[in-house]
Amino acid sequence: FDTSGAGSIVGDASQSIPRGSDCDPVEPLADAGHYFNGWTGDHEGSESPLTIENVTSDMTVTANFEANDVELDVSDVSVDVPEGGTASFQIRLTAQPSADVTVTVARTDGDEDLDVSEGAALTFTTGNWDEYQTVTLSAAEDDDDSDAGTATFACSASGGADAVASVDVEATEVDDDYALTITAVNGSVSRDPDQA
């Protein structure tokens, strides 16, 4: 029994078998961040463990291993951030990586009042890859009562075996400043916006 890719064989990989007998069972074991992708050679299939019955000739069988397809799982791709306050979203990986993956979160476009206050750099390992980690965005207080600002934050990953596609999160600042207009008509007063 042989291997291709990042993995090993559990059991006796080199066996002398009497003609017509069965081999001892073997089992494929993928390294961290990889998966077993089937047997090829003189036997094809995906059994685990594998016992080849009625062996009548020399055989070479290969266990094939492939790297996991790792992507970013982002809890929210659109976040409202109150002016002078914070809002959060979470990130994890969709599969176990072969090595540590670092995810950085940074504003790439938009209103500079919006920024990352916590979680600008997150590390995911082969042990915690499926656990959400939190990114907190903040919006600076200002006196601007115009339309709410927006910004794009890129969540980018590095490390691991293969490239991981980045994910953008769109943040919108929820303004707490208002232009108050009071109009008196025939002894009554209206306000826009109508705040208590």
Structure description:
This protein is mainly β and 196 residues long. Helices cover 0% and strands 49% of the residues. A five-stranded mixed β-sheet has the order 7-14-13-9-11, with no helix packed on it. It is rod-shaped. The chain starts with a strand and ends with a strand. The mean pLDDT is 90.
Could you give a short description of this structure?
The chain is mainly β and 196 residues long. The protein has strands spanning 2-4, 7-10, 27-30, 34-41, 61-67, 72-74, 78-82, 86-93, 101-110, 114-118, 121-124, 133-139, 150-159, 167-174, 181-185, 188-192. 20% of the residues are buried.
Hey, roughly how much beta strand do the residues contain?
A: over 45%
Q: Encode the helix/strand succession as letters.
A: EEEEEEEEEEEEEEEE
Please report the number of helical segments.
0
Look at the structure and give the mean pLDDT. 90
The percent of residues in helical segments reads under 10%
Judging from the principal axes of the Cα atoms, what is the shape?
rod-shaped
Terminal Cα span: 78 Å
- As an assembly, this protein is single chain
Summing up helix and strand content along with how strands pair, one would put the structural category as mainly beta
Describe the largest sheet.
Answer: 5 strands, mixed
Total beta strand runs? 16
Q: Which terms summarize this structure?
A:
196 residues, mainly beta, 5-stranded mixed beta sheet, rod-shaped
Layout of helices and strands:
Blueprint: E1 2-4, E2 7-10, E3 27-30, E4 34-41, E5 61-67, E6 72-74, E7 78-82, E8 86-93, E9 101-110, E10 114-118, E11 121-124, E12 133-139, E13 150-159, E14 167-174, E15 181-185, E16 188-192
